[in-house]
């Protein structure tokens, strides 16, 4: 069995704690790897390496930082397949989806390559006689990133490239369920010439996370994961004087209006609900069928669901892979049986699915896709984030009923409307309480130069991640007021409040 350690100070670090967690291959159920779970001392070593690297890195020129980022982008481009293969091996998603994840992560590296443009600052001349004022932004220090299992490469790349570009040093704590991709990202960063200690990876669980939240030398924490943990992260880290952005869970709704192209809507619902086995924070998990669209839409989704090819992620024929763990698979199944007991109609029941034709996958964490109709608030399948390939359909008579339902959700990550009516789409985008809105786009994940973030219990903190918000988060402002007195000027004594003239 392979053992994965930490990446500290530009080199691998063996486990000191002697504590390990299992890393499965979800397609076979085997456990080919164990990951080191850091002790407080190991986290401290990673933070110390980042702290030591900080003075030189934060003072390094923009030219030097961007030279690294361009090189990093080049090496990542050449290693896309390797990163994607690790994602598929430990997460289970199909290789094409893993490649898509790497590409979306690389968008943030590309954004970071343009950091000089973002850090230009502002200058006002002659605000008062012979007085100029400039605003600059500087790094905050050591930043910690804590990331979820569902995007083991992309979400870390939402964070560290931009943080590093801004002059910070970084300690990443990836998900212990699929940690190898993040480790490879750090190794490649060293190959690209990143000085030792600028990017560190410490593997672990709650022990490691909680140490990062209280460590006096950590200045900022970026977190992406489930809502209960996001809430904990924000409370703990802010209580310890850190700036925090903590992105949480989601239950994303897709409203389908009566004038929508139902075939287009059904295709999009399928892709957004079942892609990556529903383990996406921007997955559509609820379709709100408005007016008389329900029966036809459910029929079209069911017909498409039956054709999906489910199998191991490294088989090019597979469109959907397994779930992350056996426990998660069983929990997802319990929502399907629970929904039936609570009065929903189970149109497609994917539980109990097995991959045909090979005994190799008999212990894999597979499930088929499920479609639940006539779901209502109050049912567990509606109220909880299932995070699996289970799509709920809720019926609504009118647009007003549908928007009230969506806005009643405790989450507000993404929301989409499908319609041909520009006026209705415009109303939706202004009225919906969500951070990311799609108009005939089911998974409106913003491009790298916009920012990603939800509302309500999908985000704890003020700033979204990456884009301009990311630059704000990873820098702090400084305003400099300068006077170069003319030799003829006499300041004189004046205890009054400075005024401009
Ligand atoms: P998770 O919250 O269980 O874990 C996220 C991270 O927190 C991991 O690194 C984990 O080690 C750590 N962690 C777990 N329990 C902890 C505890 N008790 N104390 C301290 N740290 C702890 O999330 P997950 O299951 O890995 O990922 C799936 C969740 O992430 C879903 O809820 C999904 O919606 C969410 N997610 C949100 C976004 C977003 O952008 N809003 C993106 C991706 C995933």
Automatic annotation (TrEMBL):
Matches recorded under Gene3D superfamilies: Aldehyde Dehydrogenase, Chain A, domain 1, Aldehyde Dehydrogenase, Chain A, domain 2
Catalytic EC class: oxidoreductase
GO MF, any single term: oxidoreductase activity
Keywords assigned: NAD, Oxidoreductase
One Pfam family linked to the record: Aldedh
InterPro entries according to UniProt: Ald_DH/histidinol_DH (IPR016161), Ald_DH_C (IPR016163), Ald_DH_CS_CYS (IPR016160), Ald_DH_N (IPR016162), Aldehyde_DH_dom (IPR015590), MeMal-semiAld_DH (IPR010061)
Membrane among keywords: no
Keyword field contains NAD: yes
Residue ranges annotated for the Aldehyde dehydrogenase domain, each copy included: 21-479
EC number, as in UniProt: 1.2.1.27
CDD domains referenced in this protein's UniProt entry, alphabetically: ALDH_F6_MMSDH
Full protein name: methylmalonate-semialdehyde dehydrogenase (CoA acylating)
Organism name: Streptomyces iconiensis
Lineage of the organism: Bacteria, Bacillati, Actinomycetota, Actinomycetes, Kitasatosporales
